[in-house]
Write a structure and sequence with these properties.
InterPro entries: DUF7553. Pfam families: DUF7553. The chain has three helices and no strands. The protein is mostly helical. The protein has a domain of about 45 residues. The longest helix is centred in the C-terminal third of the chain and has 22 residues. It is globular, with a radius of gyration of 13 Å.
Amino acid sequence: MKSQLESLTAGVFEEQDGHLTQSEPGPKDDRIAEIAEKLDGLATEASGETAEHILVARDRCLEYLEESDA
């Protein structure tokens, strides 16, 4: 699970770096959706407070996607 979380963290940092260097900044919806899906899978493998934190992160990704569609 640790390596999966590290991979997700790296992906988030890549999106943040892109925000600073791309001519069209901001996270890409498909990448955010991919991260939300991976978080959902990790939450099923985790338990307790860890699972709760993962689900909060997933929910924030989904909220971002809903807001970007509006």
